[in-house]
Amino acid sequence: MKPTIAVFFGGQTCEHDVSILTGLQALRALDPMKYRAIPVYIGRGGDWYAGDALRDIGAYKDFGPRAARRVVPVRAEGGMALYGHPEDRRLFGRYRRIERIDAAIPAMHGMNGEDGTLQGLFELMDVPFASAGVLGSAVGMDKIAMKRVFAASGIPVLPDVAVGRDLWESDREGVIREAEAALGYPMFVKPANLGSSIGISRAKDREGLIEAMGVAAAYDRRILIERGIEDLIEVNCAALGFGEGVRASVVEMPIRWDDAALLSFTNKYARGPNGKLGQEMRRRIPAPIGEELTERVRALTIQAFRAIDCKGVARVDFLLDQKDGSVYVGEINTIPGSLSNYLWSATGMTFSELMDELIRCAYAAHAEKRKNDYAYESEILLEAGASLKGAKGGVGWK
After folding, report:
1. pLDDT digit string (tens) for 173-220?
2. 352-385 tens-digit pLDDT
3. 116: Cβ–Cβ under 8 A, 6 or more apart, which residues?
4. In this structure, are 97 and 179 located in the same domain?
5. Confidence tier at 269 by pLDDT (50, 70, 90)
6. Helix, strand, or coil (residue 85)
């Protein structure tokens, strides 16, 4: 019997639409001869939906509950089950199992899906899942925490100043002085917990810094101010695997269409080489950076992947300073757009083979988890019971 693999996408996030694209790509790449693939869509309001209608991108242009069945997750023996929502009149007020899931592939981007929240649910449900776990997802999402872990692991990152929105609102002048003294201009200002370049601005002077801080503060209470590089090259590389069996992809160089020294959300996902929307971003694969630098980037990719205990596939974005040849890790994307299929296809791996590998990683990590002993017996409850029986004013133990 073929295992049922659920692909999760959508979510309450600014990257909701991009997640739908990644999810539909993943669904189509799953080999129907090996798996029974089902879509699970998390709407903008947080409700879950399942049903074949979700395979059609047209269903999301004016999405309504009639497009699919609303479901709720329930823990089941050896996996997760999806039950019809009790408010669904078709169920006559009763829960009814609609699907049983053997493994999950999160195709989520951004908050409430890529940040460890959904991964925590999968852990509680005891279902294998093909992305970084709670730790790797949470650290990978928060740029400030990510940089602190990378720096402690000996991975090169740019100098920065981390600021809370409350501090910015109460002591704007102090924040500006600290950033100017520590970093100088230009600076990049980023919300700590958003991806896809949303809310990220380049500040070339004090006026630009004030404006950039306002933009970032609208998206997150934690803000990262980072030293800018005047003459930079951006390159990306993906890692794939679990535990010791991790390998790096080819290295790509994204091509920008503006001079902002930063790939915008539109450039990343929607703008083509002629500037029109709806076409894939241009890339140079492999990146023309020389063999020695390519191997350094690939080695740092694996080091970053392991530093936050990732699994499955992740993409690491790098900044290269052309002035002095320095290499910096910008960030790690624990669930990259299109699952970085284009980087693996350049090595000869098909999208279907990539999905096979992700499922293998999910099952391997789940089997590793099963080796942990959760059945430690203690005398705490026996001692507490005796204390409670004789206690009138309180419990006599700590």
Report:
1. 999 999 999 999 999 999 998 765 778 999 999 999 999 999 999 999
2. 999 999 999 999 999 999 888 776 777 777 777 6
3. 133, 134, 135, 136, 137, 138, 141
4. no
5. very low
6. coil
Buried b (16+ CB within 10 A) or exposed e, 137-170: bbbbbbbbbbbebbeeeebebbebbbbebeebee
Percent of the chain as helix, strand, coil, to the nearest 5: 35, 25, 40
User: 10 Å Cβ neighbour count for 39?
Assistant: 25
Same domain, 344 and 270: yes
Strand partners for 73: 82
Instruction: Give residue-wise pLDDT tens across range 85-108.
Output: 766 655 545 567 788 999 999 999
> Between residues 388 and 98, which one has the greater pLDDT?
98
User: DSSP secondary-structure letter at 277?
Assistant: B
Cite the beta strand spans of 286-387 per DSSP E: 312-321, 327-333
pLDDT exceeds 80 at position 261: no
The set of residues, in sequence order, having a beta carbon less than 8 Å from that of 86 and lying 6+ positions away, is 72, 93, 94, 95
251 in helix, strand or coil? strand
Q: Are residues 10 and 121 in the same domain?
A: yes
Pairing relationship of beta strands 222-227 and 201-203 according to DSSP bridges: unpaired
Query: How far is the C-alpha of 199 from the C-alpha of 191, rounded, in Å?
Result: 6
Rounded CA-CA distance 397/126 in Å is 34
Q: State the total domains in the chain.
A: 3
Residue 8 above 90 pLDDT?
Answer: yes
Instruction: Tally Cβ neighbours within 10 Å of residue 348.
Output: 7
Q: Give the end of a domain, one of 206, 227, 248.
A: 227
Same domain, 211 and 268: no
Q: What is the greatest pairwise CA distance in the chain?
A: 80
Residue 378 is assigned to a structural domain of this protein: no
The two tokens of residue 377 are 């017996």
Determine the average pLDDT of the residues in 163-169: 97
In contact, 364 and 242? CB cutoff 8 Å:
yes
Q: For the chain, give the percent of residues with pLDDT over 70.
A: 86
Question: Same domain for 222 and 259?
Answer: no
